[in-house]
Amino acid sequence: AGAETVKRAVELDVASRFQESLVCYQEGIDLLLQVVKATKDEAKKHRYRQKISEYMTRAEDIKKHIEKEKQDGKYHKQIRIEENATGFGYEKLFHEYLTEIVSEVWVEDPYIRHVHQASRYSLYNFLRFCEMLIKGPCKVKTIHLLTSCDEGCGRSQQMSGLEEIQQSLRNYGVTLNIEFSSSIHDREIRFNNGWMIKIGRGLDYFKKPQGRFSIGYCDFDLRPCHETTVDVFHTKHTKKM
């Protein structure tokens, strides 16, 4: 498993997918260190240690490269989610950027609306996103939401849903600030550690489940996705709304 993980790290490294490569190098090194502990053959141990040393050096170089790009404001990573792809739940997409210092989050998404509008489950999606933030490892205290007002009879249900989420978050010591804009078009999520994620379809990139008791209804990792692009940036200062 360690060799396969490191092999994947090298492939990602060659493809200049440095953030993902770093994660694989770190996982692979940990697995290989476990192999060294379990190996009694001294010659094998020596070879493993040499390889581990090489991988650690490369991982450190990548870490410095990423840090320099972040400091220069040049970091950019793009993820392509294919039509009907699975395995792209919120934890998978956001977890590596939710470090312990994250305490404030900004969400701009024009379609955090009524749960029954055609093919949209955006209020539930936003609730799932908030649940992920509460589970950590970040220590979120404030979430800022900028969205648009639902029209007609959906408006009262939108407000009711958002207020319920707001109250529920309050029980966990988290403040949800809600603002509305009639001209909002951009979809982006920002964390106060400098990471910014832009998703072409916003939080609503999952397909409607086939039924209430179908696989993927509860677990977003198993839910088929709409085709979309995710762009990840790092900025020195996260702007405020």
TrEMBL record:
<dbReference type="InterPro" id="IPR036181">
    <property type="entry name" value="MIT_dom_sf"/>
</dbReference>
<dbReference type="Pfam" id="PF16565">
    <property type="entry name" value="MIT_C"/>
</dbReference>
<dbReference type="InterPro" id="IPR007330">
    <property type="entry name" value="MIT_dom"/>
</dbReference>
<dbReference type="Pfam" id="PF04212">
    <property type="entry name" value="MIT"/>
</dbReference>
<dbReference type="InterPro" id="IPR052817">
    <property type="entry name" value="MIT_domain_contain_protein1"/>
</dbReference>
<feature type="domain" description="MIT">
    <location>
        <begin position="1"/>
        <end position="71"/>
    </location>
</feature>
<dbReference type="InterPro" id="IPR032341">
    <property type="entry name" value="MITD1_C"/>
</dbReference>
<protein>
    <submittedName>
        <fullName>MITD1 protein</fullName>
    </submittedName>
</protein>
<dbReference type="InterPro" id="IPR045331">
    <property type="entry name" value="MITD1_N"/>
</dbReference>
<dbReference type="InterPro" id="IPR038113">
    <property type="entry name" value="MITD1_C_sf"/>
</dbReference>
